[in-house]
Amino acid sequence: MSQGGGVRRLSSRGGVVPFLLLLALVLLAILPESLTGIDPLSQHARLVLAPPLTSGHPLGCDFLGRDLWSRLVSGSLVSLTVGVSVGILSTVIGGVWGILSGFLGRPWDPVMMRTLEIWYALPEILIATLLMLVLGHGLLAVVVALSIGGWMGVARVLRAETLRLREAVFMDAARSSGVSPLRLVFRHFLPNVMPVVFVMVLFRIPGGILGESTLSFLGLGLAPPQASWGVLVNEGWKALPVSAFMLIWPAAFIVLSLVSFQILADRLGRRFGVGR
Questions:
Q1: Which tens digit of pLDDT belongs to each residue from 93-109?
Q2: Does the pLDDT value for residue 168 go beyond 90?
Q3: pTM higher than 0.70 for the full model?
Q4: Which residue of 92, 97, 217, 228 has the lowest C-beta tally within 10 Å?
Q5: 66 phi-psi bin (left φ>0, alpha ψ -120 to 50, beta other)
Q6: Among the listed residues 9, 4, 12, 22, the one whose alpha carbon sits nearest the alpha carbon of residue 202
Q7: Which of 42, 15, 68 is nearest to 235 (CA)?
Q8: CA distance linking residue 95 with residue 101, whole number of Å
Q9: How many separate domains does the chain show?
Q10: At 131, which helix (H) or strand (E)?
């Protein structure tokens, strides 16, 4: 199955809309200066809590007179970076665990799976919160905490896929022909498991974005004046009694990104027969 076929199917079944939304968010993230022309940290006393559609400030300003549009655009890079990094790192951790468990079999497989189930019983955000108390604030700390807290589902899926592939006819044929274990893994196993790995990365990205937003909202993630969607939600919540729009804009960006990634991951998952 080619990934090109999966992309064509996305377009034919409505995946083009979330794809375009994500493309727009990525462009916002990588071209902030070109799109806003305003320093997201620049403060103006006369623009404190300026409403949307104020001249030169389409989304208004926050309680320090900073332009909300430029802060949202600046925060897009941070939030998407966290989401993609968590997606990749948690998939690597879970993938290594799940694939090793599937390949090693007894007696290691039952031990590894019981360990995973104990870890899986703990809420992801609880694990991440406890780790943040140890690691402190910062982008790297957020990525590590959310990745360690959220790799278990990936491990279960990739273990199941490994067990399926290990017993596949083409793998038996390769073993019978005297292929070395290393060649078996790199020539026959990895090319067939990589589409599943890619889908799992996509499934984990929304969790990374939402996790960062939750930690920052609780004051445990990124710290102001650094902008991320989670930091902006935190600031918007504090200003809610006097300025609801400060909360609405970052919340809308979070929802759009989560829904878009989820739809794409779900469609590709169906294409490759992947469940979480």
A1: 999 999 999 988 888 99
A2: no
A3: yes
A4: 92
A5: beta
A6: 22
A7: 68
A8: 10
A9: 1
A10: helix 124-135
